[in-house]
Every structure is written in structure tokens, then in C-alpha cells.
Amino acid sequence: MVRGLRAPIRGATYRRGAFLLLGGALLLPYGLVAVGLARQVRDGGTPLAVVVPMTIVAAAIGLVPPLLRGARSLEIAAVRGLLDVDLPEPPERISAEARLRAALWFAVHLTVGGGVGLALFVVVPTAAVLVTTRTGWAAAGPAALSVAVLVATVYAVAGLGALARLMAPVLLGPSADERVAALEAEARRLAERNRLARDLHDSVGHALTVAVLQAGAAGQLLATDPAFVARALTAIEETGRAAMEDLDRVLGVLRDDLPSEPDGTRPDLGDLAALAHRTGAGLATAGPLLAVPPALSQEAYRIVQEALTNALRHAGATPVSLDVTAAGTSLVVEVRNTLRGRGLAGMRERVTLLGGDLTAGPDGDQWRVRAELHW
């Protein structure tokens, strides 16, 4: 109650008044057209056969702006700035239901704004003029009317502004379809970031594993096998450089001001030879690997990378073989080593997301990890 009585001294009241007067300003062109047409009818100089079509055309033109996306964007900006209501920007494509709600808001805004503008700029000034042109008790009535209208308008602005704050999310907020689309876009964004996080984990984890193993082996053979040491240092350099490139790429994509990552920047099955060379794995391929769809090829590369990393990390310096076969619309990846493997959760997640099958278990005296993907 006390808060309502303080409306004339609250800044929010005057921001709400500015918002309502904006509606009155937008109503002004409609009013001028209506007055012009009314004069045409009143003067009688223009035949009704001309006035009626002009009225219909003017009404049709006047009905278009409230249905445009720009009108909704304008109203949302005004509500944000003057009513302190946080509303999202409208999407590029707006449903018919959202357009109708925005048009209703537009019409109410213009109508109420026109009433507030009429009170402030017509009634109050007229009463003030009457006060200045009369003396004595004759001026008391217009003076009281002027003050009463001004005070009533201030409180009406406070009340109508509060009501507008409540109704803005209902009429200008996102529709059910827009909310679903926004949630789907957010889900895609999070999924992309999760995929990038997996890529970064696999790439950096692989590079560190290879570097540690190669450096350890090189340290033991430093005095007896300089050629192996040179190869180990080369592998460490190549692996580190590849990891730095992956890190730069992922960090660049994670920046909000950059577009989504282009497919061509991610390693795929065409890079398996370099990967096998860095890890020392034996590589055997069959079938048209380059015909595998790019997205599947890139994910398959990450599966191979994680499998080799796990083999090196948990099995140490034991022989690792890699077989990759493409046939028809299927791709089969097999990694074998002599010790039991671990760390399959990441691979299983990737394979499941791609709709494939992952099996891991003993095969004779070896441990086999097999991933089968389809497209």
C-alpha cells in the first residue's frame, strides 16, 4: 500500500510512463490517417466510392506492422529497457500464434499509450490554459481538474506499467515451439562441446602417453641404440605438434564468437598411418577407407586413437596391432595387444552414439577390442 502511494517519486514509474508514451507515439500515424479520412467524409467533397476503398487500403496497411518480426523485436527492446523484463530475442521464423500474440500486445500498447498521451498532452494543458485565462474562483475548478488529472495519470501509469510487466512474458515471450527449438539448440550446443571435450581428452591423453613411453624407452637405450632414440624423439615431436594443433582447434571452436568447427579440420581415417607411426602400432587396412562418410571417419579415428592410447598406457611396451576394414556400409576397427585392456568407457560412449557395437575381451592369448560402425 505504502509502495503504491510512493509511485510519483519512484523512477520506475517514469520509465513505465516513457514506455506507454512510446505506444502513443506509434499510434500517432494511425490517428492522423483516421482524422484525414474522417475529414474526407465530413466535407463531402470526396465520393464514398473513393473514400471506402481508401479506408480499406489504409486499414490493411495498418494491420501489417503488428504482425512483422520487427515490431515484436521493437516491443521486446522497449520492454527490456523501460520495464526491466528480460525477454529473449525472437527467432528468425515466428509462428502464427506468436505473431498474433505480439499483434495483440502491439494494439493494447498503442491504445493505452494513446490514452496516457491524451491525458498528459491534451487534458492537463487545456486545464492549465483555462487557469491562466480566468481569475478568482473561476480558475479554481480548472486548476483542481488539472492537478487531479495529472496525479491520476501518474498513478494510472504506475498501475498500467506494473500490469504490462506481468503481461509482457505472456504476449511477447517465446511460444511453446520456440521454447522447444531453443532447448534443442542448447542441447546441440552442449553435445558439440561435450564432443570437443572428448576429442581434447583423447588427443592430449594420447600425446602424453606416447611421449612418456617413448621418452622412457629412449632414456634406457640412450647409450646403446642412438637410432631408436632419434626415432623416439621424432615420434614425441610429431605427437606433441599434433596435440598442439588439436588444442588450438578445440579452443578456437569453444570461443563463442567463432562458427562451428568445419569437418575438414578434424583428423580422420586418412591420418591413421601417421597415428600408427607415432605409437609404433602395426597397421593393416582393407577396403575404401576414404569412402567412409566424413563424420563417421572422424569419430572412427578418435576411437582408434583412444584404443591405442589405452593399450600403450595399460599394457606398456607390448606389441599392438591395428586392423581397419571398410566394406559396403560397414567399418570394423580391431586393436589387439597381449595384456588385458582398460579404459573402455569413452570408446563405448562414442560407438553407442554412432549406433555401432563395441566388444572387448580375450581372443586366444591376446586382448581384442572390436568396434563395428555402420552408415
TrEMBL record:
Q: Which organism is it from?
A: Actinoplanes friuliensis DSM 7358
- The record's EC number reads 2.7.13.3
A GO molecular function term, named singly, is: ATP binding
**Enzyme superclass (EC):** transferase
| Xref: PANTHER family | NITRATE/NITRITE SENSOR PROTEIN NARX-RELATED, NITRATE_NITRITE SENSOR PROTEIN NARQ
> Record's InterPro entries?
HATPase_C_sf (IPR036890), Sensor_HK_TwoCompSys (IPR050482), Sig_transdc_His_kin_sub3_dim/P (IPR011712)
**What's this protein's name?**
histidine kinase
Residue ranges constituting the Signal transduction histidine kinase subgroup 3 dimerisation and phosphoacceptor domain according to the UniProt record? 192-256
Give one Pfam family, short name only.
HisKA_3
The regions listed as transmembrane in this protein's record are 48-68, 103-131, 143-164
Query: Does Nucleotidyltransferase appear among the keywords?
Result: no
Q: Does the keyword Cytoplasm apply?
A: no
User: Which transformation does this protein catalyse, written as a reaction?
Assistant: ATP + protein L-histidine = ADP + protein N-phospho-L-histidine
Keywords from UniProt, A to Z, are: ATP-binding, Kinase, Membrane, Nucleotide-binding, Phosphoprotein, Transferase, Transmembrane, Transmembrane helix, Two-component regulatory system
GO annotation, cellular component aspect: membrane
Domain of life, per lineage:
Bacteria
